[in-house]
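Intended use. Records like the one below are meant for learning the mapping from a protein sequence to its folded structure. Do not use them to infer anything beyond what is encoded.
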Amino acid sequence: MPPVLRSRTRGDRLRPAAAMRGARLYGTGARRAEETGMTMLMAEYPVDRRQTAGLFAVTLYLARSSEHPEGNPNEGYRFILPLDANARVDADAWAHLRDSCAVVRFREDEESRRGRLVHRAGGVHGARWIFDYGDGEEVLHMLEAHTVRAGDYLSVQGEDGDMRTFHIMAVARA
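Structure written out for the chain above:
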């Protein structure tokens, strides 16, 4: 029997994965690091394994929108962040592991951008999380209020000011 994905575009019925134009099947678990490009990211930003009990590698793909009715797996982010037992970002752990919290933004028609996950003062809850590329930044909308689990969604405000929604495709220990 072919693998199936749940589709919200046509009610909530199941369709064969092959029928989801351009979509890929990931299941509930995370893809291996080498398949998502995290090996390259982690080689570039070495991590001391003794201090990384709560670090996770996260892959986001552009979610469905009017421009991309099926989403877009060629546009997204791969990043490393600390999560607590409830799958929420852990600001205290980040303070100790900030050098390990890297991000790669990828898009179809652009070079990948590399940067860091940064926690700064300001925002709704007194602080905000951003992807800092050195020459620009993108804000993760209310990251501290969201769980970070495969299947959930996060919004990112790009450098152009537009808010875009991304589907969390994979979360795995870094």
